[in-house]
Amino acid sequence: MSTASTRLPEGRYGRSSDERTDHKLKIIGAVLGAALLALIGYFAFHYVVQSEISGQVITFKAADDAVEVHLEVHKDAGTAGYCTVRSQSADGAEVGRADFRFTGSATRIDKVVTLRTTSRGTTAELLGCHAG
């Protein structure tokens, strides 16, 4: 007795439907992955480009009822905006917070501002700068 093979001869009938489906799924996955990367890149680019004002705290000097903060602000010419600064006490409680406005055509501003506090502040933290 001879046994018949249940397998089809290799290469005679083309690819199976499972292989065609796998190939289509790989193409769809690649296209969706590329679209997701493009979308992330788009949002990242616009986040960076829209940052018209940036700043940093250079130094600060604390007193009993105020903190003098030396800010350096970089902005586009003619852009008006503000930077938010806060101070905390030694135990971490917020003792002062204020917005300081910057206008004019200068692109770099070095300014010492005074942040009034409810008790002695031990820090000066720049929370952020915003156009507007």
TrEMBL record:
Pfam families: DUF4307
Domain of life: Bacteria
Keywords in alphabetical order: Membrane, Transmembrane, Transmembrane helix
Regions crossing the membrane: 27-49
Protein name per Swiss-Prot or TrEMBL: DUF4307 domain-containing protein
Organism: Streptomyces shenzhenensis
